[in-house]
Amino acid sequence: MSQKIRNEGLRNIAIIAHVDHGKTTLVDHMFRQSGLFRQNQEVADRIMDSMDLERERGITIAAKNCAVISGGVKINIIDTPGHADFGGEVERALSMVDGAVLLVDASEGPLPQTRFVLKKTLDRGLPVIVVVNKIDRKDARVEEVLNEIYDLFIDLDASEEQLEFPVLYAIGREGLAKETLDGEGKDLQPLFTRILSTIPAPFHDPDEPFRMLVSDLGYSDFLGRLAVGRVISGTARINQTLVRIDESGAAKPLRVSKLQVYQGPSLTETDEAEPGDIIVLSGVEEVTIGDTICTTEAPKALPRIHVDEPTVAMRFAINSSPFAGREGKFVQSAKLRERLAKETLRNVAIRVEETEDKDSFTVKGRGEFQMAILVETMRREGFELSVGRPEVILKTEGGVKKEPVEHLFIDCDEAFVGVVTEKLSIRKGRMLNLVNHGSGRVRLEFSIPSRGLIGYRDEFLTDTKGTGIMNSSLEGYEEYRGDFPSRFTGSIVCDREGVGVPYALFNLEPRGRLFITPGEPVYEGMIVGEHNRDNDINVNPCKEKKLTNMRASGKDENVILSPVLPMTLERALHFVREDEMVEITPASIRLRKTVLSAKDRHTLDGARKKEKES
Question: How far apart are CA 503 and CA 556, in angstroms?
């Protein structure tokens, strides 16, 4: 049996952390200090956040690959998302690396997503370098945070080798890291040194033929579909004939038209790919994540990437409102089906299922935030669609109904503990822990059903006057905890097509909070506001004042309406109930009843009441 050897000229690492702990900013400075850019070159911040949505929201949504050179060694870096909803991206990224750099905020400490991404890393047996970031914060508590990290490693059953992790202290936005808290820090050289000494070089069997696991997909207008992955063994060359082994085990031939490797955040062409490197291969069609690309002489599949089961489902349907087709480019169900199928190719955590209704689909994923990002992306591409309320996926085991349960962490001022605890207890939350650091802020821990968190974030921010921080991670499935109301208010529903009139809206304001402004087009079944009471009411927002000759001068001109908060996609998804949908177009977000006709809704309500009575 041949001896496996290491490729010492390479290192493959993932940078993992909770949301907003500084991963992407640290990678920026790794680029700058590795000599990738000229001294006077203008470079944008957060280079790796290339998507518009990532730049707008300040978070990483998709895992990105890049490479830097340090000490003559090429370091392939994968910047991963910190949000648990994008866990499929983390699992995909970890399949390509030999170690990880864990970033933890010096004040916030390890949070739920830190636990989530670290568990995935430890389960793979990867070595970890811990970087305590943002040590310049006024509220930094480095020693306490380090103890919390050790506790987290022990809690996640880390091996003895993994427990002896090296620690660095960093200020990511200034691009410096140091071995000791009191030491001098000038640059990120201590981090580069530690990566080269701690993260093992990729090893391979020199006698094995070429094999590569597809971990990501790309698309180029000039080259077609791109397969991204790590070379497990052997070498690949341009114009080489290979085969792709799919999920069923069938081998499909392909020809390599182009080979590319990462250099900084961009790609560069190469004639040959060496073992252990992360490459981008062109010339392969119909490839999916998890496929193996290997030689025709030795077709042998590698273990496929495993991802956690989806926990949230949402209905995607064509836009069937009277305003359909006015604002979007893509309105047909065939286009919607094609786009969702494309998403499943790129995102291993998304699943799409057909429904009895040929114009709608059930999309399953990790969380409501992941769904909102998918809908927003489609909206910007020109799609018109209607989506339902996110619903958790229930399981039945041994005749017992089970539901996904989250471990919720809340950081808020002492004054808001009462209102937060009250709201979460209504949603079947159970308090696990309360820690008061004596700084005026309190950290609360709850165990709560996932369905209890759908729609709660906006309410939480209102209750804590925008100062609260809320994070959660999936704990697993537990026995169903019982029903609770998702909303205590009803909807104000329009009963005809027309345009919102100031006089009518002014008279509707005492009934509740309105969502539309004067001049906005409306239709029958469209939700124009939130009713103060728990029942729905049908109203006429198009009603004008009857004019007569008996009028006082200036009496009717001064109608002052309350300002309307613009409807965002997340607010809309949180607001709708089971019998309501969100109509999404590139220009508008509207709320509507699933059944638009007031007469049909009245008939359905009567039928439901009869069923309950019988």
Answer: 9
What pLDDT shows up at residue 44? 43
Question: Mind giving me the DSSP string for 418-481?
Answer: HHHHHHHHHTT-EEEEEEE-SSSEEEEEEEEEHHHHTTHHHHHHHHTTT--EEEEEEEEEEE--
Using CA atoms, how far residue 257 sits from 7, 31, 346, in Å, is: 25, 29, 21
The type of residue at 11 is R
Measured between alpha carbons, how far is 54 from 108 in angstroms, rounded to an integer? 22
Find the mean pLDDT for residues 235-254. 83
- Residue 172's pLDDT is 78
Q: Is 380 within 8 Å of 370 (Cβ atoms)? A: no
Judged on CB neighbours under 10 Å (0-12, 13-18, 19+), 42 is exposed
> Beta strands of 188-333 (E only): which ranges?
203-204, 211-220, 224-233, 236-237, 241-245, 251-255, 258-263, 266-269, 272-273, 278-282, 292-295, 312-318
Q: Amino acid identity, residue 133?
A: N
The DSSP 8-state label assigned to residue 565 in this structure reads P
The number of residues making up the chain comes to 614
CA atoms in the 13 A half-sphere facing the CB of 238? 8
Q: Do 339 and 350 contact (CB within 8 A), yes or no?
A: no
Secondary structure of 53-90 in HEC code, one letter for each residue: HHHHHCCCCCCEEEEEEECCEEEEEEECCCCHHHHHHH
pLDDT for residue 359: 84
d(CA 175, CA 31): 10
Helix/strand/coil for 514: strand
Q: Phi/psi at 224 (nearest 5 deg)? A: 80, -150
Which long-range contacts (C-beta less than 8 Å, at least 24 apart) are formed by 299-307? Answer: 299/243, 299/245, 299/251, 300/211, 300/245, 301/245, 301/249, 302/211, 302/213, 302/232, 304/247, 305/91, 305/92, 305/95, 305/213, 305/215, 305/348, 306/91, 307/87, 307/88, 307/91, 307/92, 307/348, 307/349
pTM of the predicted structure, to 2 decimals: 0.74
Please provide residue 21's backbone torsions phi and psi, each rounded to the nearest 5 degrees.
-95, 0
CA angle centred on 566, ends 560 and 570, rounded to 5°? 150
- 3-class DSSP state for residue 598? helix
Sign of the CA dihedral running 417, 418, 420, 422: positive
533-586 pLDDT tens trace: 888 899 999 988 876 665 555 555 667 888 888 888 888 888 888 889 999 999
Whether the CA torsion 263, 265, 268, 274 is positive or negative: it is: positive
